[in-house]
Amino acid sequence: MRSFFIWAGLYPLTGTKIPRQLAGFFWERCYKIFFMDNKQNTGVQDDIRVDVNDPSEVEYVHRQYPGYTHQEIIDAIKKFGPMRSDIEAHLKK
Prior knowledge:
Layout: H1 2-8, H2 20-34, H3 44-48, H4 55-64, H5 70-80, H6 84-91
C-alpha cells in the first residue's frame, strides 16, 4: 500500500507517517479517483456482476425479466450474490 501512496504522490518521501487527519482525506481522494463507478466505462466486471445498491442495474435486470418485481430481483441478488449468472439461473426457473 505504501508504494501506491508513493506512486500517487500522497506519501511523504521522508518515510514519516501521514497524520491521521490527512490519511482519511487521502484515502477518500484515491477512492474517488480510482474506484468510483463510471457509467461510461463499462467492462467485464460490469457484465458479470449486479450491484444491488444501483437502481439502474436492478432496473436493467427487471427489463430482462419483467415477470418479477423489483423487490423480488433485489431479494434474489441478496440471496444468490452479485454474480449475474447465478441470479439469471434462479430467475429463469
